[in-house]
């Protein structure tokens, strides 16, 4: 067995040496063929090859010096430039459109805010008007209720005079007589005032002229007071004839009978002593104390 292994090892070593020799022979033949082809090539071809090899880097370097690019590179650069310009234009358009959209949104938002504010102010104004009307209505209702309560609290006016009909007739005659007297007095006073104004006496002294003016003022003042009495007499006659606005002989303040003694002095008086005292203490006029009507 050992001999057989020795033989196989020897065979494998021989085959290895043989394959190595063959490879060396092939390599040697390749070198020889390359050398022969170089020797057989003309000198011009070698020279041109050398020139082409030498010129190649120069042609690559010349565009840098002259500023000209090959066609392929120029078209590529133009395309890149156009792409950049197109991208820039698109970007500008996009920015403009975004700005326009923002402006439009801002305008819409401003309009919406204005509309909302206007709507709110209109609502507030309407609410204020409604509240004002409601307050006015409530105030009117309260006033009406107060007036009704006041009317209900005040006792109704008496409808009967404290004097019988025959005595009322006597008071009527007395009032008419006093009315005639006072009317005559008013006519005389007005005549005196007109004569003083016309200057029938023709006074020569300034004092006399002054006294005439004073006389005229006094006469007109008394005539005015007498006319007020005429108005009260007519009102007292209406009380006797129609019992309006209150029957004759009743105080228009206390709604009670006026004492007979007071009526004998002033038969047209609408107030008792109590009513007259209240009028003077409050600084009122006779008209302020009378019953409406």
């Amino acid at each position: 067995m050992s001999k057989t292994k020795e033989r196989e090892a020897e065979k494998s070593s021989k085959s290895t040496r043989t394959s190595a020799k063959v490879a060396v022979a092939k390599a040697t033949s390749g070198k020889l063929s390359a050398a022969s082809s170089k020797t057989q090539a003309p000198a011009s071809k070698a020279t041109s090859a050398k020139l082409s090899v030498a010129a190649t880097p120069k042609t690559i370097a010349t565009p840098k010096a002259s500023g000209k690019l090959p066609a392929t590179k120029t078209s590529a650069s133009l395309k890149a430039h156009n792409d950049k310009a197109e991208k820039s234009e698109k970007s500008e358009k996009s920015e403009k459109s975004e700005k326009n959209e923002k402006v439009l949104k801002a305008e819409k938002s401003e309009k919406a805010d204005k509309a909302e504010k206007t709507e709110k102010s209109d609502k507030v104004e309407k609410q204020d008007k409604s509240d004002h009307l409601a307050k006015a209505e409530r105030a009117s209702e309260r006033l009406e209720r107060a007036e009704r309560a006041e009317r209900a609290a005040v006792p109704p006016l008496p409808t009967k005079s404290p004097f019988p009909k025959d005595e009322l007739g006597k008071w009527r005659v007395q009032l008419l007589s006093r009315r005639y007297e006072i009317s005559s007095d008013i006519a005389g006073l007005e005549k005196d005032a007109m004569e003083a104004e016309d200057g029938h006496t023709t006074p020569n002294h300034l004092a006399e002229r002054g006294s005439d003016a004073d006389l005229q003022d006094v006469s007109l003042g008394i005539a005015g007071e007498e006319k007020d009495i005429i108005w009260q007499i007519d009102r007292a006659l209406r009380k006797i004839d129609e019992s309006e606005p209150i029957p004759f002989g009743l105080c228009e303040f206390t709604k009670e009978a006026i004492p007979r003694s007071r009526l004998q002095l002033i038969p047209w008086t609408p107030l008792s002593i109590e009513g007259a005292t209240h009028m003077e203490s409050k600084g009122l006029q006779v008209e302020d104390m009378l019953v409406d009507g």
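The two ends are 169 Å apart (CA to CA). The longest helix spans residues 71-153.
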